[in-house]
Design brief:
Elements: H1 2-22, H2 32-51, H3 53-61
Length: 67
């Protein structure tokens, strides 16, 4: 299951990078593509956060600050 998810994320990432590199050359302002890309990145972040939320919280509790 994790390998399939990892493979899909890599596939999305390899398609996303070229698309994001084309955006700065577009001087028309925010296009529908930019809005969709922002939505996709937000959805990926929320999905990863929800999948690994227990591990993230456990790691945050293990942080120790030293003076």
């Amino acid at each position: 299951m994790k390998e399939i998810l990892k493979r899909r994320i890599v596939q999305w990432w390899t398609q996303l990078i070229p698309a994001l590199r084309r955006l700065p050359a577009d001087d028309r302002g925010y296009s529908a593509e930019a809005v969709i890309m922002t939505m996709v990145l937000t959805a990926i972040g929320l999905t990863v956060g929800s999948i690994f939320s227990d591990e993230i919280v456990a790691a945050a509790r293990d942080i120790v600050f030293h003076d």
